[in-house]
Amino acid sequence: MKIAYLGPAGTFSEKAALEAGDQQSTYLPMASMPAVMTAVETRAVDYGILPIENSLEGAVSITLDVLIHETRLRICREIVIPIRHMLVAKPDVQLDTIEVLYTHQQPLAQSRRFIERCLPNVPTVATLSTAAALVEALADERRAAALTTLHAAERAQANILAYDVQDTTNNRTRFVVLAPEDAAPTGDDKTSLMFTSKVNRAGALHEALAIFAQAGINLSKIESRPAKAELGDYVFLVDIDGHRHEPVVAEALQKLATIAGRVKIFGSYPKFRG
Q: Order of strands, edge to edge, in the sheet holding 260-270?
């Protein structure tokens, strides 16, 4: 089994890929999220891993745009990874001697409290990933440190100066596994989809959502995104309980198709129970 993920190695995306695979799997780091999608579409790999949602920062726009506009791949699984940031440096560097901090923008934003209190005057250097932050810090001749993952720190056998410097302990990212087909029903599934309204009028969204309510189908998530057509046009993205092949869900989706401008099923897959 070959699995593509957003590289480089040592990132949370690689950790999600490792969770999706097994000891016989091989892993292919890709340079971008669309590249992960293309690797699956061309059968260079069997599965692709993409982040879709963070508990603090919300939806991952690139992944949603790929699902909405660019691919017919299906979501066949979801994986939720706790986000833990570590302050890491070379062995001879101590907290009070750090001269520069390498970090990706996300751990920087998610670790403000620690940085303001413990590294208030240390300049930061932006990097492309948490793994790259560690590589660049270890290569710097100055007393440099990095905000990175525990996975990356252990791979590099680097010195961890501080553990779990993120501002909140419930920071998690949901990843989706993309494949040519989604998963078979398990009895504990969810379905992700998008739809648009035929016309922009009062009650159009209520009419669509009422279909699920009348069928007794729970919506676990709803959000809107620009349709990338005309200003003011939106697509609505929802996660619903149940598998698209279950009779009640299938009937609701058929009713939605009769009143919506467009409906696209991203996939049905087991709920994460980690």
A: 219-226, 234-241, 189-197, 260-270
